[in-house]
């Protein structure tokens, strides 16, 4: 499970007070993003008998390469450890000259062993850069350069610090910020641009796009949506006169302004008219940290995503309304959702009996994306 999804599940369970019993669950495996310590604490407050396995592993190495088994007695600190190496795998924390760094000194993580792939199909240049000779292994063995900055703790566990390039993980998906920037630079009226991931109040990352030039935010967003999946379209945009630069002329990403979520303006849509619309406008505003939302505002244009749609469902239920994440994806506005909402006391229609297995959340997201943008 991706940590951001676990957070959303805990939010929903705490809102309704309806925690599942989970009698068959022996370990909860989380992976795909950095695991916040507060999520662990909330899990153990309800399920102290079910350990969390914080897993780490790049796709290029087949699967997980480290596991950290966490219990209520684990010392988490500021960062939750990603753990120790798994079998048939070797990990090296190296400096820029491929020398091992001592415990407590940050370095780049390299992976060697049976799980390391052979390279990128049809991309020998990229393969040569990231799959390099293993100076600590047998002749001919290679290791994978993860691009992740980590540190060895005194107890032998690893801590993830940050990405060394512009790749980020959001909602469990690896995103190359430069790819988004390249598409934006091709948009008419955009003279310069940058994209970065910034954390919200809940610690979950969101993409923010910065535009220089006469192009409108609506035009830029529409251009991205034509060629990129929804999770690569920035949730928010800011228009700047110029990008901040460092002394040597590079974009100073640390100096890019962080948008104030409370200051994001809603559209000029109509005010909510019914109790249902008012409740859903309030749910949108609370989840997205906005001052106000109109009945005609598009949830995703305001910065919503699949995880926050689950939070809206929980807020709506607390207000006495029953909607589903699929409703949020297809109807998008408080007005349209209000027309489809049922009273929470009214039972949802029973699903049709089918021999087909249930789909996962990721499969549902792909289906929703195809519904929205597929031919």
Describe this entry's structure for a reader:
It is globular, with a radius of gyration of 23 Å. By secondary structure, the protein is an alpha+beta fold. A hairpin with a 5-residue loop joins β8 and β9. Strands 5, 6, 7, 8 and 9 form a five-stranded antiparallel β-sheet that branches. A four-stranded mixed β-sheet has the order 1-2-3-4, with no helix packed on it. A three-stranded mixed β-sheet has the order 12-13-14. The mean pLDDT is 86. It is 28% helix and 22% strand. It has three domains: 161 residues, ANL, N-terminal domain (Rossmann fold, 3-Layer(aba) Sandwich); 87 residues, GMP Synthetase, Chain A, domain 3 (2-Layer Sandwich), CATH 3.30.300; 99 residues, Non-ribosomal Peptide Synthetase Peptidyl Carrier Protein, Chain A (Orthogonal Bundle), CATH 1.10.1200.10. The chain contains ten helices and 16 strands.
Strand content: 15-25%
Uncertain regions spanning at least 5 consecutive residues:
none
Structural category: alpha+beta
Q: By CATH's scheme, which homologous superfamily of the largest domain applies?
A: ANL, N-terminal domain
* Distance between the ends: 30 Å
What does the average pLDDT come to? 86
Taking all Cα atoms into account, the compactness measure Rg is 23 Å
Largest sheet: 5 strands, antiparallel
Helix content: 25-40%
Q: Please state the second-level CATH architecture of the largest domain.
A: 3-Layer(aba) Sandwich
Class of the largest domain, according to the CATH hierarchy?
Alpha Beta
CATH topology of the largest domain: Rossmann fold
Q: Based on DSSP secondary structure assignment, what is the total number of beta strands? A: 16
User: How many domains is the backbone divided into?
Assistant: 3
Encode the helix/strand succession as letters: HEHEEEEEHEEEEEHEEHEHHEHHEH
Annotation field: number of helices: 10
* Shape descriptor: globular
């Amino acid at each position: 499970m991706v940590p951001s999804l676990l957070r959303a599940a805990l939010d929903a369970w705490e809102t309704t007070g309806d925690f599942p019993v989970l009698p068959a669950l022996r370990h909860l495996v989380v992976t795909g993003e950095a695991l916040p310590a507060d999520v662990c604490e909330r899990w153990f407050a309800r399920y102290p008998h079910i350990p969390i396995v914080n897993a780490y592993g790049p796709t290029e190495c087949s699967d997980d390469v480290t596991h950290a088994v966490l219990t209520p007695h684990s010392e988490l600190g500021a960062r939750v450890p990603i753990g120790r190496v798994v079998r048939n795998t070797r990990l090296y924390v190296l400096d820029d000259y491929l020398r091992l760094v001592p415990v407590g000194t940050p370095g780049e993580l390299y992976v060697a062993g049976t799980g390391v792939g052979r390279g990128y199909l049809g991309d020998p240049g990229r393969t040569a850069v990231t799959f390099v000779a293993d100076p600590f292994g047998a002749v001919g063995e290679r290791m994978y350069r993860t691009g992740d900055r980590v540190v060895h703790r005194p107890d032998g566990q690893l801590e993830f610090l940050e990405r060394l390039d512009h790749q980020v993980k959001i909602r469990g998906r690896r995103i190359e910020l430069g790819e988004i920037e390249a598409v934006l630079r091709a948009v008419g009226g955009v003279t310069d641009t940058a994209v970065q991931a910034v954390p919200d109040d809940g610690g979950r990352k969101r993409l923010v796009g910065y535009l220089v030039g006469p192009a409108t935010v609506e035009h830029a967003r529409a251009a991205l949506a034509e060629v990129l999946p929804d999770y690569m379209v920035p949730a928010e945009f800011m228009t700047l006169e110029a990008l901040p630069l460092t002394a040597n002329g590079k974009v100073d990403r640390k100096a890019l302004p962080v948008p104030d979520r409370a200051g994001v303006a809603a559209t000029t849509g109509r005010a909510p008219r019914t109790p249902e619309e008012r409740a859903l406008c309030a749910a949108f505003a609370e989840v997205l940290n906005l001052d106000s939302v109109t009945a005609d505002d598009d949830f995703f244009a305001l910065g919503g995503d699949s995880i926050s749609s689950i939070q809206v469902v929980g807020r709506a239920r607390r207000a006495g309304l029953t909607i589903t994440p699929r409703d949020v994806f297809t109807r998008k506005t408080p007005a349209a959702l209000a027309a489809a909402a049922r009273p929470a006391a009214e039972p949802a229609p029973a699903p049709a009996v089918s021999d087909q297995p249930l789909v996962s959340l990721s499969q549902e997201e792909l289906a929703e994306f195809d519904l929205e943008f597929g031919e």
